[in-house]
Amino acid sequence: MPDAVVLLSGGLDSYTAAAIIAADGFALNALTIRYGQVHAREVEAARAVARTLGVRRHTELDLDLRGVAASALTGASAVPKDRPIDESIPSTYVPARNTIFLSLALAWAETLGASDIVIGVNALDYSGYPDCRPEYIAAFEKMAALATKAGVEGGRLRIHTPLVTLSKADIIRRGLALGLDYGLTHSCYDPRPDGGPCGRCDSCVLRAKGFAEAGAADPALR
What we know:
Layout: E1 3-7, H1 12-23, E2 27-34, H2 41-53, E3 57-62, H3 97-112, E4 116-118, H4 134-147, H5 149-152, E5 158-160, H6 168-177, H7 202-214
Parallel strand pairs: 1-2, 1-4, 2-3, 4-5
Helix pairs in contact: 1-2, 1-6, 6-7
C-alpha cells in the first residue's frame, strides 16, 4: 500500500479528500499545521478526523505565520461576516499559505519516499483564493520535479486534488457515500466561545449551502 501525505485541517474538504484517497488504496500520513490561525479549534477536529481515518502517521507542526502573512485568519483584521461571496479575494486569504503547506508536505513526502500528496482545494465553491486553482497545482508539481532529489533522479510527485472540480454539495454527497461523519469536522473561521460555528463567515455560508443543496442535515449543528 503506497504512502500519501495529506494536508489535514480538520475541515470538511480535507477530510473528504483524504477519505477518497484512502479508498483508492493509499496509506495516509496526515500533516496538520498550527499557523497562528484564529480558528485553532480546527486542529482538535483534525485529530478526531485522523483517528477515524486510521492514518498511519499524524504530524502536527507549529509554524506561526502571523508575523509574515497578514490575514483575517491570522488575526490581522476581523473575520468578515454576511458578505456576498464572489470571485474577489477576501481578507481571509492567507498569503502563500498553500505554497508553504505544500512545501512542507513535499519535504515529508520525500523523507517518507512517498510520491503522492493530497490537498482538499476546490475551484468552484470557494472564497476566491488564487492558490486553489488547478493551474496553481500544476505549477507546483512542475516546481517539485525541479526542486527535489526525487524529481532530479526521475521520480514524479503527484498532487491529488480530488475535490477541485466538485461543488460543495457534490463533495458532501461523495463523503456521505463513503460513510464520513461530518460531525467531527470544523469549518468556521470565527467560532463562538463554546467552539460552535458562527454561521455567518464565508466558510459557514458555503458549508450550509452545500448541505442544503445535498439535501442533508449538517451533523455539526446538532
